[in-house]
Amino acid sequence: MENLALIDSFSEFKDDKLIDRVTLMAILEDVFRNALKKKYGSDDNFDIIINPDKGDLEIWRNRVVVADGEVEDPNEEISLSEARKIEDDFEVGEDVSEEVKLIDLGRRSILALRQNLISKIHEHDNTNIYKQFKELEGEIYTAEVHHIRHRAVILLDDEGNEIILPKDKQIPSDFFRKGDNVRGIIESVELKGNKPSIIMSRANPVFLEKLFEQEIPEVFDGLITVKKVVRIPGEKAKVAVDSYDDRIDPVGACVGMKGSRIHGIVRELGNENIDVINYTNNLNLFITRALSPARVTAINIDEENKRAEVILKPEEVSKAIGRGGHNIRLAGQLTGYEIDVLREGAEEDVELREFSDEIEEWIIEEFHKIGLDTAKSVLEHDIDDLVKRTDLEQETIQEVINILKEEFEE
């Protein structure tokens, strides 16, 4: 009866950890065999009988009877006189089975045995958690804010599993308080030591794709396909959608009347500006659509070098570039082409890149960000306007204007 307290605790593990009976018995046997190895040097000649439901545990040591004075291995052999203390009719060569009580292992061994059991149970739990979340990679998951750190938010789900939302996986405008529910995708799951590391992301393009699946019935049902998603988290995104049913307008279905369907997605992403684009295999048309809201006048494509030269009216250029260059950058990522913007009727103009010997590249890039990529486009603006719209000093802008003016004076 001295083993009942220990056995009772096995049932606690079974109830708390939801371990099935077969797995629990395997873990228990493994733990006991490790204890027997430490005590007797080997566990090969031991039988362990466990019934965790009833709290039964029996350990039997099997030894061979040898003549007195001929015992070489006390663990596997027993002298005739010792065997006859168990049953008086044993003879040399017969097998003796003797029950080993837990108390025989010693108090220290029993404490170590329990600690080993706890460790094995946790290891089993962690393996199951790893497998569970590995299958959820790329799927939307919701968890509650438990702790806010400088570089990450620690979340807990309903089962108490810890999920990490790193700072660089958050949308810049994200602001969380303890107890808030947070949605994101399970981006990666790794075993670090024996503990699973579960990483959530709200910045990954897949999160936006999965939100379309959740919020738009036609996407969920497979009537509309999300072909590609590109985004600058919290700023702007472009989503190419397609439908194999000509009766369905994929863009209209995704956006909804007055944006009603996409509004919830925009709000979830911190008011990220989302352009929904009708996908097409016609490359010219796809690039044209990708540059929306700008209207393209003409387009020249170099398929070999994956470059596209688009010609726009002067008033459309800033729309094509977008704030901070976001629109043209995302259009390039969506189509897989590097896009160069040219002004209509600018044949006599000169691209700013032509002045790279006299003007530093980072200065040219500052003008490019606001849609000014030719000499005349810069000269059309006054200095004060250019100072406001760029991160350049007035003196730097004046030097650039002097260089550009010299070109046309010549």
UniProtKB/TrEMBL annotation:
Participates in both transcription termination and antitermination. It comes from Pukyongia salina. Pfam families: KH_NusA_1st, KH_NusA_2nd, NusA_N. PANTHER family: TRANSCRIPTION TERMINATION FACTOR NUSA, TRANSCRIPTION TERMINATION_ANTITERMINATION PROTEIN NUSA. It comes from the Bacteria. One of its GO terms (molecular function) is RNA binding. The gene is nusA. Monomer. Binds directly to the core enzyme of the DNA-dependent RNA polymerase and to nascent RNA. This is Transcription termination/antitermination protein NusA. Belongs to the NusA family.
